[in-house]
Design goal:
Layout (H helix, E strand, L loop, with lengths): L2 H8 L5 E2 L5 H11 L3 E5 L5 E6 H11 L8 H4 L13 H11 L3 E6 L2 E7 H24 L1
Parallel strand pairs: 1-2
Antiparallel strand pairs: 2-3, 4-5
Helix pairs in contact: 5-6
Length: 142
């Protein structure tokens, strides 16, 4: 089971924002879309960074209400770990756990191709374990 399986099921559409948008713009986008992070990307879908609720909390703590007018480029996480559609779900779970983040962009040929959340990965892994258990039960009783 790999990332492609998740994207085939949930889709490849990703919410993005430009690096010149304000923190206030990001907050509005996250609230409107009911998401926890957005990818900062160029018009041709090259990943520049990611900005999450955690990034926003940190900048608000450091700069107060003035942070709302700051550019996303000043707040976003620039060192973004990515994976490809061919990576296994186990690899993605390990990457997210070790990095302590909940969203992982999928990159193909240098461009954003999707996004998986820890919820997507855990849900798919549970489905896989349940399917394997059912197969074992069938094998034993068969």
């Amino acid at each position: 089971m790999n990332v492609k399986d998740i994207l085939d099921e949930k889709g490849r559409d990703v919410v993005t924002i430009g690096e010149n948008a304000s923190v206030s713009d990001v907050i509005a986008q996250l609230a409107d879309k009911k998401i926890g992070a957005t990818i900062v990307a160029t018009d041709d879908n090259r990943i520049l960074g990611i900005i999450s609720e955690r990034d926003i909390v940190r900048v608000l703590s450091a700069h107060g209400a003035g942070a709302l007018d700051m550019a996303v480029s000043l707040v976003m996480t620039r060192k973004v770990l990515v994976c490809s559609e061919s990576h296994s779900i186990d690899h993605v779970m390990e990457t997210m756990t070790n990095g302590r983040f909940r969203h992982l962009p999928i990159e193909e040929e240098g461009r954003l191709a999707g996004l998986v959340s820890i919820g997507d990965v855990v849900r798919k892994r549970i489905e896989q374990v349940e399917r394997e258990a059912e197969q074992m039960k069938s094998y034993i009783s068969g």
